[in-house]
Amino acid sequence: MGKITMYRTLIIYGLSVSALSLPGCSVFEKKPAADTLAETKYTAYYTCGGCHGPKNVRVNYMTPNIIGQKEGYLAAKIRDFRDMKRINPYMNGVVSEMTDQDANNLAAYYSNYGRGKK
Fold this sequence. Notes:
There is one protein chain. This protein is an all-alpha fold. The protein has a single domain, classed as Cytochrome Bc1 Complex, Chain D, domain 2 (Orthogonal Bundle), CATH 1.10.760. It is built from 5 helices and no strands.
């Protein structure tokens, strides 16, 4: 395989992975989390689950595992993406309209997931 063919293959593969993962992340539906656990579960499933996967089964190897992470760490990272201190086109779009309370709710949900507090 030639060098140019290899680069083309990598570019096509990268674009196809991006195009396939975009519908999974709810970039276009910016529905913030709510105060109740049921609504936070809904947001976690439909907003975060498309990329981070349900039950910590990731969609691709580039997406980090977030279940069981420390609550303060997750909330800080959500705020960093929202405030554009960390740049990722998908994450920046998903969390752009989340409030601090939304970030805290999602962080609490994911940090306690699997510990009997689902």
